[in-house]
């Protein structure tokens, strides 16, 4: 099944201020505990927009979970984190959906934050996996399938390497755009 999405953030753009507020909120850990999102220090962070009642989401969660585990096994736990942004409204269905995921989630009780994220990024269909760097800058708008993505028949380690290449290009671009302060000259006119 093909997924068509409205335009969202472009590569290299900061996660918009309104939706970036989710970083101030708690996120739910796999074990049910909660932690401040500000404690995340992963190289790449995937925002996984999903719903329990969505067949493509149910299919994709297994593929993404395999990729998530493979990346963390090879590159370490700081390499990649995923955070579920749930579209669910039923707590039990969300819990069931979460039970299939080895990653974090925005708690369903933070409905206002979830709706703002879906709205701010024009999420009209799910699943969608938005990849951010540790500073909240978008690396890839949708990493479901394609060269930078995860999906049926795709190698998650290759996808991760491509995402890291994108991140490095962005960082080089930032460095090139930063003004370099000139050293004071010892020569007088």
TrEMBL record:
Q: Composition bias, kind Acidic residues: at what positions?
A: 178-189
Drop me one GO molecular function for this one.
thioredoxin-disulfide reductase (NADPH) activity
Start and end residues of each Thioredoxin domain: 9-169
Annotated region Disordered: the residues are 170-189
Give the SUPFAM superfamilies listed for this entry: Thioredoxin-like
Would you name any one GO CC term? nucleus
- State the source organism's domain of life: Eukaryota
An example GO BP is: negative regulation of Wnt signaling pathway
| InterPro entries according to UniProt | Thioredoxin-like_fold (IPR012336), Thioredoxin-like_sf (IPR036249), Thioredoxin_domain (IPR013766)
Q: Which Gene3D superfamilies match?
A: Glutaredoxin
Q: Name one Pfam family in it.
A: Thioredoxin_8
Per its record, how is this protein called by name? Inositol-1,4,5-trisphosphate 5-phosphatase 1
Name the species this protein comes from.
Cladocopium goreaui
